[in-house]
Amino acid sequence: xxxxxxxxxxxxxxxxxxxxxxxxxxxxxxxxxxxxxxxxxxxxxxxxxxxxxxxxxxxxxxxxxxxxxxxxxxxxxxxxxxxxxxxxxxxxxxxxxxxxxxxxxxxxxxxxxxxxxxxxxxxxxxxxxxxxxxxxxxxxxxxxxxxxxxxxxxxxxxxxxxxxxxxxxxxxxxxxxxxxxxxxxxxxxxxxxxxxxxxxxxxxxxxxxxxxxxxxxxxxxxxxxxxxxxxxxxxxxxxxxxxxxxxxxxxxxxxxxxxxxxxxxxxxxxxxxxxxxxxxxxxxxxxxxxxxxxxxxxxxxxxxxxxxxxxxxxxxxxxxxxxxxxxxxxxxxxxxxxxxxxxxxxxxxxxxxxxxxxxxxxxxxxxxxxxxxxxxxxxxxxxxxxxxxxxxxxxxxxxxxxxxxxxxxxxxxxxxxxxxxxxxxxxxxxxxxxxxxxxxxxxxxxxxxxxxxxxxxxxxxxxxxxxxxxxxxxxxxxxxxxxxxxxxxxxxxxxxxxxxxxxxxxxxxxxxxxxxxxxxxxxxxxxxxxxxxxxxxxxxxxxxxxxxxxxxxxxxxxxxxxxxxxxxxxxxxxxxxxxxxxxxxxxxxxxxxxxxxxxx
Length: 600
What we know:
Blueprint: H1 2-34, H2 40-68, H3 73-104, E1 110-117, H4 121-137, E2 145-152, H5 156-162, H6 167-172, E3 179-181, H7 185-194, E4 202-205, E5 213-219, H8 221-227, H9 235-244, E6 249-251, H10 258-270, H11 273-277, E7 281-282, E8 291-295, H12 296-305, E9 314-316, E10 323-324, E11 329-333, H13 341-354, H14 357-365, H15 400-414, E12 416-424, H16 439-451, E13 459-466, E14 469-478, H17 481-488, H18 499-510, E15 517-525, H19 536-546, E16 549-554, H20 566-572, E17 575-578, H21 584-597
Helix pairs in contact: 1-2, 2-3, 5-7, 9-10, 16-17, 16-21, 18-19, 19-20
């Protein structure tokens, strides 16, 4: 019996050694097939590892000899062998990895291409570098991923994804992204819908918001104290206050940027769209002495990096503001030449890391507010922002229906106004109003008030009509309040009222509206037509034929209903409005706003 045990115990190490040699041979074939053993250093490292493995057969023999002296030696032998196997399983890979780094250096990290917006690119680039350092700390100082962060102007990134990233977009924007981190979930949702169909070369896996940044109105500190109130105020209220100070307000294109679009959508809810568009100027970046509509993180970064005396801008937080919410979406390409399988795991790791405490801290340090975490040390008055935040809106952006309505209103409000204004200068306009001024003087003041609200691209012309004559005073052109006032100061009311003739003359001078311009005639009169050779029907036929809207303001003795002035305005899609000397200026300004807004 002892001989049998002796034979069994002597063959065990041989079997173990044979199995180890077989494992080494199999792994060698695998490594050479995949091209892992391509340098002499890798062969040296592999040889050392294989030698240690084979020598372990001798260790098993010694263990076997020791076990023979111990009672229940097979139990002990198996337990020790199992413990050794567990130790090798857990300690082996890190040791091998560390040895590989020592001998071969760090392997090439997997590249992950991250597409974001131009506004967010500096912040996301900083966060990406922190993630790379995190992977290095977890991998013996070697980065496992290299994040290439790039951006596309406006909405070109979303358009490129929807069209599966053409060769032109490869040249003009950059490579196929593995991660897409836009400013707004609303923008991402549209792309996800467009790429979900059968046959699409790209699949966008929607992700949760990783951070947010409210859209703010940045104002120069010198006016901030005059604008800030102790009670919450809306976008419309704050823009009106800033406008009264004479400070220009810059806004990025609302159809191409999240900040511009979200702020404009909120502004349209409390102000007339045409008024909004004539109260802002298109601007991509803050400029000295001007206010700026932007996101909080852009304002904070601007104050930190572009100001000699901080802050350049102080953030005002409208109570009804929306916010950029930065969803992280994974992008998968299926075409043979652009498949990005290698980048998918590190891209997922980046998304997961952003949800950790370390990732949230990285976001916070760049001026972004991570979900579920208070603002960090960067959010302080020195940089023009505040840590505490209370907003009325729960949703980050308008819903699809509201967005479509906003875009329609924007297109109408942005059209340049082209207005011909003709004033009654007949003898009755010399009568005194209750204020002691003549009706004509009141009308002149009203024209001045209306012209101050026109935008820089709007044009107007001015004429007066009296007796049998229509006289041009100001040709069609850009706003010049002083020219209008100077020209009108030379007019002395007298004679009859050629209203029909004046409207027909104005139609010829202003021209029909088009896709870029909205045309209208505004006539102010205090009585019915008395001296025109044309009839009311002649005017009705002309306005229908030319397609120009006509608005009439009736003051003094004139009445829209009594003098059938609505016959003309209704035929053109315009309006007749009864006014008084007290409300004339406001009524004129309101009609100008209606022209700008394109509504009938």
